[in-house]
Amino acid sequence: xxxxxxxxxxxxxxxxxxxxxxxxxxxxxxxxxxxxxxxxxxxxxxxxxxxxxxxxxxxxxxxxxxxxxxxxxxxxxxxxxxxxxxxxxxxxxxxxxxxxxxxxxxxxxxxxxxxxxxxxxxxxxxxxxxxxxxxxxxxxxxxxxxxxxxxxxxxxxxxxxxxxxxxxxxxxxxxxxxxxxxxxxxxxxxxxxxxxxxxxxxxxxxxxxxxxxxxxxxxxxxxxxxxxxxxxxxxxxxxxxxxxxxxxxxxxxxxxxxxxxxxxxxxxxxxxxxxxxxxxxxxxxxxxxxxxxxxxxxxxxxxxxxxxxxxxxxxxxxxxxxxxxxxxxxxxxxxxxxxxxxxxxxxxxxxxxxxxxxxxxxxxxxxxxxxxxxxxxxxxxxxxxxxxxxxxxxxxxxxxxxxxxxxxxxxxxxxxxxxxxxxxxxxxxxxxxxxxxxxxxxxxxxxxxxxxxxxxxxxxxxxxxxxxxxxxxxxxxxxxxxxxxxxxxxxxxxxxxxxxxxxxxxxxxxxxxxxxxxxxxxxxxxxxxxxxxxxxxxxxxxxxxxxxxxxxxxxxxxxxxxxxxxxxxxxxxxxxxxxxxxxxxxxxxxxxxxxxxxxxxxxxxxxxxxxxxxxxxxxxxxxxxxxxxxxxxxxxxxxxxxxxxxxxxxxxxxxxxxxxxxxxxxxxxxxxxxxxxxxxxxxxxxxxxxxxxxxxxxxxxxxxxxxxxxxxxxxxxxxxxxxxxxxxxxxxxxxxxxxxxxxxxxxxxxxxxxxxxxxxxxxxxxxxxxxxxxxxxxxxxxxxxxxxxxxxxxxxxxxx
Length: 800
Description:
Blueprint (H helix, E strand, L loop, with lengths): L1 E4 L2 E7 L2 E7 L1 E2 H8 L12 H7 L4 E9 L6 E5 L2 E2 L2 E5 L2 E6 L6 E4 L7 E9 L2 H11 L22 E3 L2 E3 L4 E2 L3 E5 L4 E12 L2 E11 L2 E7 L5 E4 L5 E2 L17 E9 L2 E10 L4 E4 L2 E2 L2 E2 L2 E4 L2 E3 L1 E6 L11 H13 L4 E4 L8 H10 L2 E5 L11 H18 L5 E5 L4 H11 L5 H23 L5 E2 L20 E2 L16 E3 L8 H7 L10 H5 L6 H12 L5 H26 L6 E4 L22 H9 L3 E8 L1 H4 L15 E8 L5 E11 L4 E11 L3 E4 L3 E2 L8 E9 L2 E9 L14 E5 L2 E6 L3 E8 L4 E3 L4 E3 L2 E10 L4 E4 L6
Parallel strand pairs: 28-29, 28-35, 29-30, 30-31, 31-32, 33-34
Antiparallel strand pairs: 1-15, 2-3, 2-5, 4-14, 5-11, 6-10, 6-15, 7-14, 8-9, 8-11, 12-13, 16-17, 17-20, 18-19, 18-21, 21-22, 23-26, 24-25, 26-27, 36-37, 37-40, 37-41, 38-39, 38-42, 42-43, 44-45, 45-49, 46-48, 46-50, 47-49
C-alpha cells in the first residue's frame, strides 16, 4: 500500500478572495490564520464578519503530480465540511453532505499521468438550511441558526448558549491518495475476555490477501505472538485502570500483513486490558447506574467536554494534552464528550487512555428533532459505524450515548416548530436511537454499553430526567436545594461565571470592561444568564464594585454552586455514582459554565474541583441560615434556627483509610471557641459519617467552622463553612500579604480569609491551590507554572 499525502498548500477562491493556505484548513483558517485578511473572529463583535462568509461558495484547489503504475487508486478525504462537490481533472467524483464521515472514492477513471488538478467546491450551508427548513421546519436549540438539524455538521458551529455562530467550511481533516499495489488490511478488531485474573485477547483481522502476523508488546517491552482470530492468553497481564484506581498500563498490538515474507501493510493499536460494564440493577432507590471497571464500582468524577475552538485548525494535540492533563491533575477520572460537536481525533482518546480518563461518549446528535430522508439515514448509520470502529479499541471508552437531551425535551422541540405530527416524529426517534443506532453499535463493538439519550431513565420518553433511574441533568439554579435530591448519576449540572480578567481584556476595549456592557453581552450567549448571575450574587455576597471584583465574585459563586452539589452527591456514594459538571472548557472567550476559560486560565471552579474531587474527601453537611432560610425580618431581628454540622468522609480509593477529623469553631479573627476530633476508619469505595454536632451558642454572623482530615500527619482534605450567607458574615480585614521564595508563594493573613484568590498581575500563574479558605497564620503555595512577578490577593472581605 502506498499513501500519497495531499495536505499542505492549496488555493482557495470565492467571495472575492483568492488566497493560498494550509490543508487541513477552512475558509476561516485560510483568511485569518494563513493570510491575516480578516481580524480575530473572537475580538469584540467580529463574529458577524465570519458568519456572513457562510452565505457564499468557496473552491479549494490543488495541483499535484502522479505517476500511474496500473494499480487501483483511491482518493480519501478524512473530513469534508460539509456540502461539497469533488472534481479531479474536471471529472465529477462525488457530492458530500456529512462532515462526520471519512470519504473514499475510486479515481481510476479520472487520475492521469503527470499533473492532476483536484478541486473541492464548498457550497454555502446557510441558504441550504433556510430552503430545507422552509419546506419542513425542524427545531433545535434556541440559540442556534434555524434549520441546523437538516445538515450533518457540528451543531455548535451554528451557535449555542455558550458559543458563537461560526459555520465554517473546508477540508478539515487530511486528504491523500491510496495506491493499492499489494494486499491490504481492511479491519482489525480486538476482543478481550477476563476470567479469574486471567486475560485473553482475540485479534480479529480482515485482510485482502497476504499472511497475517500479530504481535502484542507489553508496557515493560516484552513481546508475544498472537494467533489471529483466536483467543490468546496474555502473559502476566497488567490491567488498565482509571485515574485514582491504579496505573494506566497500555499494550501495543502490531498487525503485520506480509507477501512473500515482505511487510506490505501494517496496523498498530494501543489497548488497555480492562473489563468495563455499565451496571444497572434494581435496588431500593430504583435502579443503579454506574461504571464498573475490572470489577470495581467507580464513582465518576469529571466534567463535560465541548470543542476547544470554532477554528478547528487551532485545536492541536498539544493544546488538548494540556487541557486533559489539568483534568488528571485535579483528580478527574471521567470526561463526557458532548454530542453537539464532532467526533474527536484519535489523539483525544489516546490521551484519555494515557491519563486514565474514562469517556462517556455522545454520538453527534443534540437538542434537535430530525426527520431524515433515505440518504441522510444511510449517512448517519455509516457515520456511527465508521467512527465507533475507529475508536472502539480505546481503554478509556466506557459508554456510548445516542444523543444529548433529545428525549428529555422532544415534545417541547416539536411544539415550538409548530408541528402537529408528534407521533410521526417520535417514531423516527425510536427508529434511530432505540433501534438502528444500538444495532449499528452492536455490529462493530458489541461490548460497549449504550444508552439512547442523556438524560435517560429507561428510554421510551418515560420520565427521562427522573431521580431513581439512569443519568440526570440537574439545571435547578438554586444549588442549596440539591440536598433534597438523590440522583443516580448526574451528567450535567452547572452555574455560569465570567472568564478571568486577562481573558476579558483579550476581546474588549477598556471602555467595554463593564460586566453589563454590550460587548460583554455579545460574549455571553445564555439567555438571561447575566440576570441569573446577578440574582444569585445578590443573594449571597455584598455587591461587587468594578469588573475585577465582579469577575472574582461570579467565579466564587460558580465554584460554590458546584462544590455544594458534588459534596452532597459524594456523601451519598452508592446511591449516586457520578458527577460530571457542565462544563470543562470554552470554545471562545465568553461568560459561560466552563471551569477553564478559553485562554486556558483556571477559574475558581477548577481549583475547587481539585479539592472536591480529592480521592479521600472530608465534607461537612452544615445547617444554618443558608439552609433553613428563616424569615429574618422578625420583630427583634433575631431568629432561632438549627446550627449544626455533620461530617462525612468519602473514600474513592481501593484501600481502607484510617484517618482523623479535627474541627474548630472559630470567630472572624480565627480565635478557637470550641473544638473536637474523631478517629475514622473508612472502608474502600465507601463513606463514613460522624454523628451530628449542634452548636447552641454559635453566632452565625461571627463564627465559622474549620475542619481538616489527616492521615499519618498528612492533610488529605480541609475546608470551612459558614452558618449564614457570606454577605452577612462580619469578616475582619485579613491584611493579606505575599512573599515569594523560589517556586513558592508565602501567604500571610491576620484574620479569617474566605475564598482567598492569588492573581498574577504582570503575567499568569498556575498554582497548586487557589481560591481557598485560610485562617490567621501563614500558608505556603507552590507555583506550578507562570511568570508573574507581582501578585494581587483578594478575599470575600474585599467585597464589603
